Each structure stands twice: as structure tokens, then as C-alpha cells.
Amino acid sequence: MSAPETRSRPWALWVPLVVFGAFVALFVWGLARTKDDTVRSRLVGQALPAFDLPAAIAERPGLKTADLKDGKPRLLNVFASWCIPCAAEAPQLQKLAAAGVSIDGVAIRDRREDLGVFLARYGNPYARIAADDLGKLQIAIGSSGVPETYVIDGRGVIRYQHIGDITPDDVALILGKLKEAAQ
Amino acid sequence: MIAEFGLAALWLAAALALLQFGSGVAALRKGDSPLAALVRPVAVVQGALALLAFAALLLVFAETDLSVKLVALNSHSAKPMMYKIAGAWGNHEGSMLLWVTVMGLAGSFVAVVERRLPEPTMIATLLGQAFVSLGFYVFLLFASNPFERLNPVPPEGQGLNPLLQDPGLAFHPPTLYLGYVGLSIAFSFAVGALLTRQVGPAFARAMRPWVLGAWIFLTLGITAGSYWAYYELGWGGWWFWDPVENASLMPWLAATALLHSCSVLAARNALRAWTVMLGVVAFSMSMVGTFLVRSGILTSVHAFAVDPKRGTFILALLAIYIGGALALFAFRAATVTEGERFAVTSRESALVFNNVMLSGILGIVLMGTLYPLVTEAFGERVSVGPPYFNPMSAVFVVPMLIVLAVGPLLRWRRDSLSRLRMPMVVAGVVGLAALGLAIVLAPGKVLPIIGLALAPAVAVASLLPLRGRKLAQVKLPLWGMVIAHFGIAVALLGMAAEGAFTTERLVALRVGETTPVGPWQIRLARIEPVAGPNWTALEATLEASYAGGKPILTHPQARMFWAPVQNTAESALLTRWNGQLYTVLGDKADGDANGGRWQLRLWWKPLVTLIWLGGALIALGGLLALVGRVASDLRRLVASDKIAFRRVRQGR
């Protein structure tokens, strides 16, 4: 649309229509595709990156890659005491822990005192809690916010990523994914 | 009852649009068809019926008739009356009805008033208008009936999105719509002219008031929308390059280009094919904009009426209208005879340059807006933001503004730059002085510095066309151009100053504590609960004192609406002549006990108000030009009537 007069080249008169056709094709494709707004980690189906993080509280040990390769599927829960949906999902994590699921936590940019208050108030379903003060592990596993929960199989491979808090309706889904990961 | 009445009026209007289209086609095929006489009156009645249907919708919203589905979904009996009325077009169905109503009324107006064009071109124009309306009638009647009933009748409505419960909403979307629809009339003129191959100055003069009108409303709509997003979303920004914002900017860019090429065609009979092309592009941009907003195809911060099914329908209309018009263009444009020639240094050249630059910006914005979609088609998910849009559009805006400073001083056909040495030196000196000052005041901020340097130069240059004229005799269109160009400079200064000098503070304050932001001292005096008609809120009282002056109270709120349930941050602004203090109350930072800290976001934005003042000036310039053009058209009409009357009386 940048050539004001196109007299000498009659074919140029068709250019706008062709360009417009391309736009319409793009729009048709855009409408036809299934829309998915969630930002998924590219690491689903891949092994966890190597890490070794210190303990976030005195009562639980820290977390390193080898801990997650003991042959048993487990949940890796990315959370923080300052995060309100994390408090909302706490009862569901308790329920999962009571059902025998082992859950490891990664506390993102947290303080020991705040974390203590949080766990005292909402319960502590975690076997280990790592302190990720700089968000390094969070970035390495492709998590874009808190809370997020990963299903890790016995070989340390990420099998599923759950974005946002685990609602009561999600518990069955998580259990199903754990069962898949066990096979 | 009222709803059924409205629906009946809508059906009748649709039937008349079909009649208008059919008789138009018949009249064009056979020159002396008696059906030709039908086209104008039918267009008038069609517009009146659409207006009746819209009035019926306003009435059911005003009395909150919850048996109408649209009312139940979008209104609530506890809402203030203004938002009940605004609710009529704050949703998809109602806004589409508003669209066809305005389009019908515009068509009636053209049918009654326009006498300059040859009758076949007029009939072809009204035929095009009926064809466009017909698509929207079909859309309304078959896919988005605003008058659908609900059984059983719900006890209460679901309310309106709280973000939209704001005086800005009452005027912003209809304003943009008036702009879009005005462009649809320009589109109809372009199609009419192509059908009868009558592209010339008369066509440009007939089309120009519509383009001007549309452009004024688009300018106002974008300005108001920008201000609405600025204070309502509470993010402190005035432009986010969001798809929905771009959707309103693109038609404006195309309309601005069309406006300028129209004046070349009207004055000099040049740029014929290009003007017709722009007429099609401008309306296609409004359709693309509507499509992007309604289909939800792109992720946007303010998608309020999203539905992919509607998207499909709008896309189909878009493909038929624009595809059809572009095909017609391809077939016919070669037979539109070439216009007048002009020299490289001439007003025409400056306007062509302006057109090319505006098209460039339009291309940049369009590509940036659609980029996420394009990349997704190739399996990536990437989005672009201000780091793309700002520098890329500056590449075109800067040369355009330089030509804007010089162009209005040039003569038509042929001129020499040496004649303009004095004004160019004056504007250049002002620009260089501003550049030096900007580099000192805002070191390292490239784009704001360019803006700060260009704005005064353009401001001075935009006034130069008045030099050496008796101001009392300057014609209104010239005043309009001067004021609009001056408005561009004012808005640019606001944008650049906001970018260069804004100070932002994100603080957590206890009640009684004080924090500085820019030249202000802000004290958090107290936090209290307050209640409105359909919300409750926590309201902070801030004592703001400017440079040690007397404290002024300001009240940002964190509002909780209860129908539907949603929290919004109501920012509070303090406006001074030299800028705005922008305050937002956030969440409680810590602790449930008394004496906890509250999050506050504070901005001091020097000269930010100039952005919208500039926008208003641009629109005012358009209005003056429109009044001037219409007045001289009317004078000509009256004069030719008198001549005809005398001829009849003298028996000639």
C-alpha cells in the first residue's frame, strides 16, 4: 500500500487483494485453532535439570536432583508463604499427602520465619522443602508463577505441570497423573 | 411488547435495505429504470426504522426489563440510570445495533443532502451502503438478536463489568463507532465511484465531510479511550499497544491518510486511484478492528465481548466487503484515468509523503498486532510490545513530522524550498534549542528526547501558515489544519515529557507515614470503608503537598463490586497545570493487626495532560475544517438554487 500510483503495472492492482487474502487466511486459521492461553513448560517429558538447594526450614531437609530419582513418582510443589492461592491449595495438598503421595516443596523467595508461620497455619505436607531464594530452580523448570505443581516420575522426568492452585476438583486429576507416572 | 416492537422495526429495516440494494442494482443495469427513484426514499426510511429499533433497546434497558435476555445478562436494577442506558451498547448485540443505526442514519443523510455527484454514482453509493448494512442486519437477526426473550424471567440481572461502569464508557465506544461508520460511508462512496468510474474532485468533495466527521470521532474516541485506560485500569500508562487499542488506531491512521489524499484529489484532481484505495483500506481497518476485538483471536487486556462464533461472522462480512471492493478495484482502477501531474517540490508531494509514512505506520501497527498470530501459525508463541512499536513507528513518525512542518507552507503543483528558507530556519533553530535542552534534562532517553525536540519545532511551524495573513479573513479549513497540526505537537510534547520525566514510587506505608514522589510529599492520613450504589470500598485519604505547599486531599479506592463480584482499583488523580499526580491504593502489605502497612503506587507525571489536550485540539481542528467545508457547500447549494429559481422565473 505504499505505491500511490500504479498505472504502468496493471498486475500491481491485484496486490492489495492478494495481501488481503493472506490476512483472511491468517484470521481463518486463528479462529479455527484451539485456543490455549496457558504458558506450559517446555520441559514436560524431559528430565529435571541438576540442582542442589539448601533447606528452607530447620525441620525438613533441602532438595537435590538425586532425591527425586528414587524410583517413586512424586509431586514437586512450587509455592511461597506470600502467595495467597498457595494457602488455598494447602488442604488439597494435605489430602494428597494423607493418600500416601510424597510431596516435595520449593519455597520461592521466602523468609524462614514467614514460612514457619505459613506451615504452622496451613499444615506441612512436604517431605523436603528447598529454599529457592533467587528463583533459579523455578526458572530452570519453566514455572511462570506460584503455585505450580509438577508430577515427577521415578527417573526424575517431568510428566505433568499443573499451573495455579490445586482445587478440590483437581485432586483426582493429579492422582491420575501420578498413577500414569508410576507405569 | 417494546422488545417485539424493536425486533419488528429491525426486520423491516433489513427488508428495506434489501429493497434499496435491489433497486439500486436494477437502476444501475438499466439507466432509466423507475426503481432508481426508490433508492433515496428507501434509504431514509431504513435509517428511521433502525433508529426506532435502537430506541426500543434503550427503553428496555432504561426500565431494566429482565425478561429480555440481553438486559438480564448485562444490566442490574441497582445500577445508576446512566449505566443502565450505557449498558445498551456495552455489549456485543447492542453495539452491533448501534452500528447499523448510525450507518442507516448516515445513509439517510446522504440520500437527503448529497446532490453534487452524478445520479448514477449516488445510486451506486447508496447501493454499496445498503449492501454493507444488509450484512450487519443478517448478523443481528440471525446470530445476535438483541431482543431475545428469557423464560423464566430471572429475579435480578447479572450486572455490567465494573471496569465498564464509568462515565468514560458511556461515550467512548459510541464515539469510536461513529468514526467506524463514517468510514463505511466513505467506503460506499469509493465503491460507488469505482462502479461508475467517476473518480474526480466532485467525488472527493462529497466524500470529504464523511471522512472528516469519521476522523473527528475516531480522534475523540481514541483520546477518550486512552484517558479511560489511564485512570480506570490503574496501571498509570496511557497507551499499551494492546490489540484493542491498535484496532482503533489503525482506522485512524488510514482515515488520516485518506483525509489528506482527499484534499489533493479535491483541489488538484490527482491521486485518484490511491484515494479510492485508501477509502477501502480505511473501512477495512475498522472491520479488522471490530473483528480483532470481538473474535478474541488475540489476547487482550480489555476484551469485553469476545466470542469466536461472532468472529467467524464478522470475518465472513469482512471477506465479502473488502475482498469484493479490492477485486472491483483491481478490475476498475486501470480504467480510472490518471490525474494531474505535479513537481517533486510541491504540496502534493508533501501530502504523498505524508500518505506513505502514515501507511508505513499503519503497516507497522498491523504487523505488530498480528505478529503473535503469525508466529503461532509457525509453532512459536511470541508477542511484541512497546520495544517493537515505539522505535519502529518512530522511524516513520519522525520524517512525517518534519514534512508536516514544511508541507503546509508549500504551494500546489510546483514550488521551491528556497522560498521557505526563513520559516525553515526559525523552526530548525527552535528544534535544535529544544534538542539541547532535552539532552540535558533527560539524558539517555532517545525517543523522549526526539519527541521533546520535535514538538516545539512542529508547534512553531504549524502556526507559520498564518503568517502574513489577516487573521479575520483566514478561512475555517485553514484554521482547522493549523489547530490540528498544533495539536499533534502538543500531544507529542505530552507523550515525550511523560516518557522522559515520570517518577514512580511503589511503597508500603503505615497510616500517618509520609513518602516523597517527584516534587510531592504524600502522607497517608487514614483508610476508611465507604459504600456506593453497587460497591463497597476501602478508601485512602492522602494528603499531597506540592513543593512544600498546602496539602490537597486525594482519595484512591480499592473497590469491591458485588454484581458481578470483582475488585477494581480506582485511582485518584490530582491535576496541576504542569502535570498529574496519580495515586493507586493496593492491598494490605502485611499483618492483620491494626497499624499494618498499605501498598501505594504513586506517579508524578509532568505534562501528561497535554497528550489528551493535544488529542482534543486535533479533533477541534477537524471540526473547524468540517464546519468550514459544510458551510461553503451550503452556500454553493443556496446560490445554485437561486440561479435555477431566477432562470425559471425569467422563463429561460
What would you note in describing this structure?
The complex is a heterodimer of chains A (183) and B (652). The N and C termini of chain A lie far apart (59 Å). Helix content of chain A is 33%, strand content 19%. The longest helix of chain A is centred in the N-terminal third of the chain and has 18 residues, at 15-32. Chain A has a single domain (52-182), classed as Glutaredoxin (3-Layer(aba) Sandwich). Chain A contains 5 helices and 7 strands; from the N terminus they run αβββαβαβαββα. Chain A is α/β, with parallel strands linked by helices and 183 residues long. Mean pLDDT of chain A is 81; it is low at 1-7. In chain A, the strands form 2 sheets. Chain A has a 5-stranded mixed sheet. In chain A, strands 1-2 form a two-stranded antiparallel ribbon. By secondary structure, chain B is an alpha+beta fold. Among the domains of chain B are: 1-160, no CATH class; 503-607, Tick-borne Encephalitis virus Glycoprotein, domain 1 (Sandwich), CATH 2.60.98. Helix content of chain B is 63%, strand content 11%. Chain B has 17 helices and 10 strands. In chain B, strands 2, 3, 4, 5, 6 and 7 form a 6-stranded antiparallel sheet that branches. In chain B, a hairpin with a 5-residue loop joins strand 4 (535-546) and strand 5 (552-554). In chain B, helix 2 packs across helix 4. The longest helix of chain B has 41 residues, at 609-649. Chain B is globular. Chain B starts with a helix and ends with a helix.
List the defining traits of the structure above.
heterodimer, A: 183 residues, alpha/beta, Glutaredoxin, 5-stranded mixed sheet, two-stranded antiparallel ribbon, 5 helices, 33% helix, elongated, B: 652 residues, alpha+beta, Tick-borne Encephalitis virus Glycoprotein, domain 1, 6-stranded antiparallel sheet, 4-stranded antiparallel sheet, cell inner membrane (chain B), Heme lyase CcmF/NrfE family subunit (chain B), transmembrane helix (chain B), CcmF_C (chain B)
